[in-house]
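Changelog entry: the DUF3077 domain-containing protein record was regenerated in this release. Current contents:
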Amino acid sequence: MIKPTPNPPIRLFTVADGISTEDLLINLSETLASANALSCDLAFNLEGSKREEWLGVAQLIELAQLLADRVHEWFGPAITAA
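Regenerated structure tokens:
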């Protein structure tokens, strides 16, 4: 019998327990910055629609960075004080 839905994928990576929220936000920001640099480098080596696609990816990453920065602004003082 064929299952109607596949098994969920096995998670290869996890976040260790006990890491502070501030450290998680810092790591998130560094990861987004790296992804943005990679996508921009790739975009600038391409032309036409592929370049535009990768610049779109870079823009999405920048938007995610703005969201992460806002979370850090809102909760940063509370995180540091804890």
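The mean pLDDT is 89.
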